[in-house]
Amino acid sequence: MTSSLPPVCEQILRHGCDAMQIQITDAQVNLLLAYTEQLQKWNKAYNLTAIRQPIEMLKLHILDSLSILSELGKFQPQRVIDVGTGPGLPGIMLAIMWPEVAIHLLDTNGKKTRFLTHCKHQLGLTNISVLNKRVEQHQPDDGYDIVVSRAFASISDMLEGCEQLVTKKGVFAAMKGVYPEAELAAMPEHYQLQHSVLLQVPNVDAERHLLIIAKQD
Question: What's the pTM value of the predicted model, to 2 decimals?
Answer without folding.
Answer: 0.96
